[in-house]
Amino acid sequence: MTDNRSGFDRPVRDFLTWTRIEAGLAPATREAYARDLQELTAFLRRRGFDDPAGVGPNDLAEHLQHLGRERGLQPSSITRHLATMRVFFRWLSANGRIESDPARILERPTRWRRVPGVMSPREMRRLVEAPSPEHGRLWVRDRCMLELMYAAGLRASEVGAMRLNEFHETLASVTVTGKGSKQRIVPVGDPAMTWTTRYLQEIRPTLARFQDGRDQHRLLLSFTGRPLERVAVWQIVRKFAAIAGLKDIHPHKLRHSFATHLLVGGADLRVVQELLGHSDIGTTQVYTHVDRSHLREVVHSHHPRP
To answer: What class is the 6-94 domain?
Structure first.
């Protein structure tokens, strides 16, 4: 009996190698491609395909529909899956692995501008203050992580990837490596500085006791001394959200709240764009929904005939 996976495994493996060695894509981008292609190939196998050669546009379109109907993914996530398919099948076609590119004619699904969920300042305080000594010896690390995420608007992947030399105590700021390996410097307030300093003095030395380089000079470490992975960040946020009595909380909600609270406090949209690392201000504008009374105040304060 032949293994149907082999017809997909080799092209996918070769493609991912190309993204790493020749295209030089960031690890997070490569991981997203790998996850998307794993879902796609599983779907195609269920439809009886042994390899990419016979796949047509309708098969790919049905996969996108499946992601929306059965998986309940949002249009933004479906758009990412489509982007993965386009790059993958374009690469297959360019390298003579298939005769024609079936993803070429697929249309991009409409991207709805969803209003992001936002915590109130009081809810945010409950979340970041939830870790305490009763929650184990790593509670200071968890408090440090939550404070940094809210103080700098960090994604889960960004806080996990932060290195020791990217925390600048004298400047009260952090260097953040975002999507596309683009870096930005974000100032952070006293609470984040205080808890990060305490973590570095009291907790990290015990976590980094191994001398085999497993810490990779990362700021936040697991109890085994290895870098804190993205999944662990999610688990920590959800754990302390439950302890604080908050529902439907995930790491990106801290980022949404960071941006929203800045704008409500009077920050300029361009400044928030820079702090979030958005290349397009249109992405940042989704946060301007938050407090229309604030917009009214701005007009009354600055318009010559309010």
So the answer is: mainly alpha
Q: Which of 63, 141, 155, 261 is catalytic?
A: 155
Write down the CATH number for the domain with range 121-300.
1.10.443.10
How confident is the model over 80-138, as pLDDT tens digits? 899 999 999 999 999 999 988 999 888 766 544 455 678 889 999 999 999 999 999 99
Handedness of CA 30, 32, 33, 39 (dihedral sign): positive
Which is it for the CA torsion 306, 120, 143, 230, positive or negative?
A: negative
Integer CA distances (angstroms), 41 to 11, 44, 219, 292, in order: 11, 5, 36, 46
d(CA 182, CA 155): 13
Give the domain ranges of the chain: 6-94, 121-300
* Residue of 81, 255, 256, 261 with catalytic role: 255
CA dist 135 and 119 (Å) reads: 23
For the segment 188-231, what is each residue's pLDDT rounded down to a tens digit?
999 999 999 999 999 999 999 887 889 999 999 999 999 999 89
Report yes or no: 106 and 57 within 8 Å, Cβ to Cβ.
Answer: yes
Catalytic option among 20, 179, 250, 289 = 179
> 252 catalytic, yes or no?
yes
* 163 assigned to active site: no
Nearest to 163 by CA among 230, 102, 228: 228
Q: Is 255 a catalytic residue?
A: yes
Report the predicted TM-score, pTM, of the whole model to 2 decimal places: 0.63
Instruction: Judge whether 287 counts as a catalytic residue.
Output: yes
